[in-house]
Design a protein that fits this description.
By secondary structure, the protein is α/β, with parallel strands linked by helices. It has a single domain, classed as Rossmann fold (3-Layer(aba) Sandwich). The chain is built from 8 helices and 5 strands; from the N terminus they run H-E-H-H-E-H-E-H-H-E-H-E-H. Strand 4, helix 7 and strand 5 form a beta-alpha-beta unit. The termini are far apart.
C-alpha cells in the first residue's frame, strides 16, 4: 500500500510538471494538446477480416510530432504481428480531442468491421481546459456503454491531475477513471504516460508528447495491459 501511494504521489508530481510545461509551450490558445486537427485517421488499407483494435484518443494516440511508423498504434501493430496475433490496429487518435469530441465520433470508429477491442485514452484535454468533471465522466461513460453494447472489450487508460487545479477538482478528476473502470468492468491502466512523463530523454521539446523512444515504452505498457484481452 505504501509503495502504491508513493508511486501515485510521484506520478502526480510528474503530471503537474508536464501540464505546467504544456500550458507554457505545448498548448494552443484554447489550452488543448497541440496538433494537426486535419490529420486523417489511419484507416486499414486492406479489406481483410482480421479482428480490429481501435486505439482511440487524443494527440498521445495520434502520435503528435512523430512519423506514422513511430506512433504507438503502429508500433503495437508490429508487436502483435511479431508475437503471432492476427489483429489490425486502427489509429483513431485526433490531436486536441476532448471526451466530448470523442463521444461525437466514436460511433464511426466502433462501427468499423470486426472491432474486437477498444483502447480508450481521453481526458487530458478536458483537464487542460478545466472542463467539469461530471461532463467528462458522462462522456466517458457513454463511450464505455457504446463499447459494451457492441460486446467490444475495452482497455481504459486513466490520467492524473496536479494539485494546482484545486483539491476538489483533483480528487474528482483522478477518481473518475478507476470508478468507471470498476462500474463497466473493463481492463484499466491508471496512467498512460507511466515511465515516460517528465523524462527529457523520452519526450519531445514541448515536454508533454513522447518522442520515438517514449512512444515505444508507452506501447509496451499498453501491450502488457492488452495481452489478457487478446486471442490467437
Amino acid at each position: 500500500m505504501k509503495s502504491l501511494m508513493r508511486q501515485t504521489h510521484l506520478l502526480l508530481i510528474i503530471l503537474s510538471a508536464v501540464l505546467l510545461s504544456a500550458g507554457c509551450s505545448a498548448s494552443d490558445s484554447s489550452g488543448e494538446f497541440a496538433g494537426d486537427p486535419s490529420k486523417p485517421l489511419t484507416i486499414p488499407k486492406s479489406g481483410e477480416t482480421r479482428p480490429k483494435i481501435v486505439a482511440f484518443g487524443d494527440s498521445l494516440t495520434a502520435g503528435f510530432g512523430l512519423a506514422e511508423d513511430e506512433s504507438y498504434p503502429y508500433l503495437l501493430q508490429k508487436r502483435l504481428e511479431a508475437d503471432g496475433y492476427r489483429y489490425e490496429v486502427l489509429n483513431a487518435g485526433v490531436s486536441g480531442d476532448t471526451t466530448l469530441g470523442g463521444l461525437e465520433r466514436i460511433d464511426w470508429a466502433l462501427g468499423q468491421d470486426n472491432v474486437e477491442i477498444l483502447v480508450l485514452a481521453l481526458g487530458g484535454n478536458d483537464l487542460l481546459r478545466r472542463m467539469p468533471v461530471d461532463s467528462m465522466r458522462a462522456n466517458l461513460a457513454a463511450m464505455l456503454q457504446k463499447a459494451k453494447d457492441r460486446n467490444i472489450k475495452v482497455l481504459f487508460c486513466g490520467m492524473l491531475a496536479p494539485s494546482n487545479v484545486g483539491s476538489d477538482y483533483q480528487v474528482q478528476f483522478v477518481s473518475t477513471f478507476p470508478a468507471l473502470a470498476k462500474e463497466f468492468d473493463v481492463a484499466f491502466m491508471p496512467f498512460i504516460l507511466k515511465d515516460v512523463a517528465l523524462d527529457p530523454e523520452l519526450n519531445q521539446a514541448d515536454g508533454i508528447h513522447p518522442n520515438a523512444d517514449g512512444a515505444k515504452i508507452m506501447m509496451e505498457n499498453i501491450y502488457e495491459q492488452l495481452r489478457p484481452l487478446l486471442r490467437k
